[in-house]
Design a protein that fits this description.
By secondary structure, this protein is an all-alpha fold. It contains ten helices and no strands. It is 49% helix and 0% strand.
Length: 232
């Protein structure tokens, strides 16, 4: 089994147990505070009127989250990953809506991630090769990444992983799961209006078209395969 397949398999196994909510707060040391301030300044500059980098993330954030989530669930030929499913779009939209209370959590987490990568690997996360990115993510998961106060390294990892799972498997109307990429991976049919007797008795993954999402139910068009128009 390739390392690519091992990573995908591990992610899908973990996806069955979504991490709990993150609690706690604290002050960050002066060095981290300066890094955060620079990160927020860049965020504000990138979100100047007319900028088109997302509803919450700036260009740098977007690139980091795309790279991070793709290492959690990497794509392969014929097997969509987090990038294909546009998980970053789901997270970006959620942080501007239902998860707005986590905006500072992400700002601080991304700033601390950047500081850790530059201190430990002399490069930003997005400039590391796959092995380097995996090493960083493993350090976060195990709580060994230095320089994290709030959120902790583990809390940041678990939250991004949870949101990656949601972005892969939530209804496409929420911005992720593009073209039902996540549902196709697990054979989930969506909200079918009618199931045949054979469907109800079948224990195998759902394979026949179409897959149905909330967007089609609200009157938006769907393609021949039942794929909802991408939400942008």
């Amino acid at each position: 089994m390739s390392s690519h397949d091992t990573t995908r398999r591990a992610f899908l196994v973990r996806a069955s147990v979504v991490a709990g909510s993150v609690a706690g707060a604290g002050l960050i040391p002066e060095a981290a505070a300066q890094n955060l301030e620079q990160h927020q300044d860049a965020n504000a500059a990138t979100h100047a009127p007319g900028a088109k980098h997302g509803t919450f993330f700036n260009a740098g954030d977007t690139a980091t989250i795309i790279a991070f989530t793709e290492r959690l669930m990497p794509g392969a030929p014929g097997k969509p990953g987090a990038r294909d499913a546009e998980v970053v779009n789901y997270i970006d939209l959620a942080l501007s809506g239902a998860y707005a209370e986590l905006q500072d959590f992400y700002r601080r987490g991304l700033a601390q991630l950047d500081a850790y990568c530059r201190t430990t690997h002399k490069e930003a996360f997005v400039r590391l090769d796959a092995a380097g990115q995996d090493a960083v993510i493993t350090a976060l998961e195990q709580g060994k990444a230095t320089g994290f106060t709030w959120p902790t390294a583990q809390a940041f990892f678990e939250t991004v992983r949870t949101h990656t799972i949601e972005g892969l498997f939530a209804d496409p109307v929420y911005g992720g799961n593009k073209n039902f990429a996540g549902w196709q991976l697990v054979g989930f049919p969506g909200g079918q209006a009618v199931y045949t007797p054979a469907d109800l008795q079948n224990r195998q993954a759902f394979t026949r078209a179409p897959m149905i999402g909330l967007q089609s139910a609200s009157g938006e068009g769907v393609g021949a395969t039942g794929s909802a128009k991408p939400t942008t």
